[in-house]
Write the C-alpha cells for this entry.
Amino acid sequence: MAIGAGSVLTNEELYAMRGPEKRAPKKADLFEVGMAGYSFLHFDIDKTLEILQKIEVNYLCIKDFHLKLDATQQECDAFQAKLRSKGVTGYAVGPIAMRTEEDVDRAFKHASMVGVKLVVGVPRYELLPYVDKKVKEYGFNYAIHIHGPDSSLFPNTKNVMDSIQHLDQRIGVCLDIGHNIRDGFCPTADLKKYHKRVFDVHIKDVTAANKDGTDIEMGRGIIDIPAFVKMLRRVKYNGVCSLEYEKNMREPFIGMAESIGFFKGVIEGAR
C-alpha cells in the first residue's frame, strides 16, 4: 500500500497494516471461579442466578436457604436443572452446621440427592469420627469450613488439620482466606503446607489481620491475592475458588462484581 505525503489513513487501512495479532497462549488453570451461596443470604435463587450471569460466574456452592436440606429428590433434580439452564454448576452443598449424628446423616443424604461429591461442613469436634464413617460410606470429600477468631469451632486451617490428621484423607478443609488471616495465619503459606487436603477455597479480602478485620471488596484489603493465585497454580489446586462476600449483604451486588473482577484480573495478570 503506497502512502503519499499528507495522506490520512482510515481505521480500516491502519488495522490492515498491523496484520494478525500474535498473543501468547493463555495458561489453563486447574481451578474454577465460583460463588459461595451464603453471599446471597437475603436473595432467592432466581436473583442469585441473575447476578451470577451478570458477573460471569458459573459455579455455586449451594446453601440450604436456596435448597432445603430435606428437599425431595424431585426438588433437588428441579433445582439442578434450573442451575444448568443458566449455565451454572452446583458443585457442593454447605456450609452446613452439624451438631448431632442426625445432622451429619441429613447432610450426606442431601449431597447424594443433589448429585454433588463435596460437603462443606462445620461439625462439632466430637462428631469427627462419625463424619469419618460417613465419608467412607459415601465416598465424598468433606471440607471443614474455618471461621476465624469469632468461633471456637475450627478457627483456622492448622486447627482443622490437627483435628483430622488421623482421619480419612477425604476429610479436609474449606480454606476461607479471610477468616484464616484474621486468626493470625497466612492463607498462602497454609495452602502450600496443606494443599493435599484443601478441597474448597472461599476467597475474600479483609481490612486487618486480626479479630478486628472486617470484610471489604477484594483488592482493597490486606491479603496478597496475587501471591495466593500463584500458590494455587504452584500446588495445582483443582477445586473452586468461591467468593464469599459478607460486606453489606443486603446490597452486595456492586461489591461482588468488583471483587470478582479484581480476582479475574489477578488471574490474568499473574500468568
User: Anything to note?
Assistant: Strands lie at 32-36, 59-62, 89-98, 118-123, 141-145, 171-176, 198-203, 205-206, 215-216, 240-243. Confidence is low (pLDDT under 50) at residues 1-6, 19-25. The two ends are 38 Å apart (CA to CA). Residues 29-269 form a domain with the TIM Barrel fold (CATH 3.20.20.150).
